[in-house]
Amino acid sequence: MQRYTNTAIVLHWLVAVLIVGAFALGLFMTDIPGFSPTKLRYYAWHKWAGVTVLLLAAVRLLWRLKNRPPELPADMPLWQRQAAHALHNVLYVFIFAVPLSGYFYTLAAGFPVVWFGVVQLPVLIAKNQALAETLQPVHYWLNMGMAAVVALHVLAALKHHVVDRDDTLRRMLPGRSR
Amino acid sequence: MKSMRTTLAVLLAGATLVAAAVPLKTDAAHSSVSATFKQMNVPVESNFKRFNAQIDYDPAHPENASAKVDIDTASLDMGQADYNKEIAKKEWFNSAQFPKASFVSSSIKPAGAGKLAVTGKLTIKGKTQDVSFPISVKAQGAQQVFEGQLPIHRLAFNIGEGDWKDTSMLADDVIIKFRVAAGQ
User: Fold this and answer.
1) Would residue A160 count as lying in a domain?
2) Given this model, what pLDDT does residue A178 score?
3) Which among A43, A45, A132, A143 could bridge A109 via Cys, Cβ 3.0 to 4.6 Å?
4) Burial of residue A94 (number of CB atoms within 10 Å: 0-12, 13-18, 19+)
5) Residue B5: what pLDDT?
């Protein structure tokens, strides 16, 4: 079996953990009523995680363009190969669109991002209340769309591992290369 | 001779009256007062939607100028309706008890071309401090435009009590920026 490169494996799981964490934190923090230092701290962490996902996703995409992913199992039907490719493409679109929508949302709301409280990120658009109100549901629904695609992604991987008992999932798990 | 002296005295008195002229009318649409602060190092600028600036200013006699500004503390726009409600609460501006923040000048002196040195009393949330800061003034059409900024420390005025005293969350330094356009 051929695995993904270690770089690809590390980037995949880092991005996965950050996406799940930022998603859960996003749902949790927006439910906190009122205004408290804790709430603002969660918002900051959420934004830092989102920007980190964006950055790692860009690195990952560049890496992928230069490093061919390992082959899918030879006996996989064509429709499954096509579905897998399509789903991965949609997932990549979401991985970029979700943090970008959040980034522009917070800029429009007048709260630029200072990454980890240190790096002031570019303020690309001016504060704009109307735009912020538009981007808020856009950010929410892109997240819900991404959650649906991630659920399919996870179910498909588990199906290969548990039902088909092939190496599809194992290609992305750390281990000694054989 | 005596009548000439009287005339001169009358003229001088008249000139003084003109110098202490009627207050200028503030053009609210072209005036603004904002507070810029850092929240976890993120610079945030928010505007006070309602304020009233009363300025007496004659370019020929800047030393006779005076200014009084009242700011409606509940009108700070943080960009989100629920945040705007929070800011009027007791631990922030306590707008129920202290609806206005105010600045009253005690002296205004010319400080070079287009510049004035302003001293006065700033009152926020019932606490008064002596402040002095430079402002610029320039004529724009029939109006005079006064611009400047005044750095303050929010904790000196008890803005942000309890957990909000944590300056790593919300810095103590706040810059009040203003622009007042006013004319006859």
Assistant:
1) yes
2) 47
3) A132
4) buried
5) 65
Nearest one of B130, B10, B16, B22 to B63, comparing CA atoms: B16
Low-confidence ranges of chain B (pLDDT < 70): 1-22
Q: How far apart are CA B103 and CA A43, in angstroms?
A: 35
Query: Tell me, what DSSP letter sits at residue B79?
Result: S
Task: Tell which CATH architecture fits domain B21-183.
Answer: Beta Barrel (2.40)
The pTM of the full predicted model, rounded to 2 decimals, is: 0.84
Complete DSSP assignment for A55-90 = HHHHHHHHHHHHSPPPPPPTT--HHHHHHHHHHHHH
- Cα distance between residue B71 and residue B125, in whole Å: 11
CA B16 – CA B12 distance, rounded (Å): 6
Q: Looking at the complex, report in whole angstroms how far the Cα of residue B45 sits from the nearest Cα belonging to chain A.
A: 7
Interface test with B, best of A30, A40, A107, A118 (most B CBs within 10 A): A40
Residue A35 maps to a domain: yes
The answer on pLDDT for A109 being more than 80 is: yes
Q: From start to end of B125-169, where are the E strands? A: 127-140, 143-153
To the nearest 10 degrees (0 to 180), the angle between helices A6-29 and A129-158 is 130
Q: How many domains is chain A partitioned into structurally?
A: 1
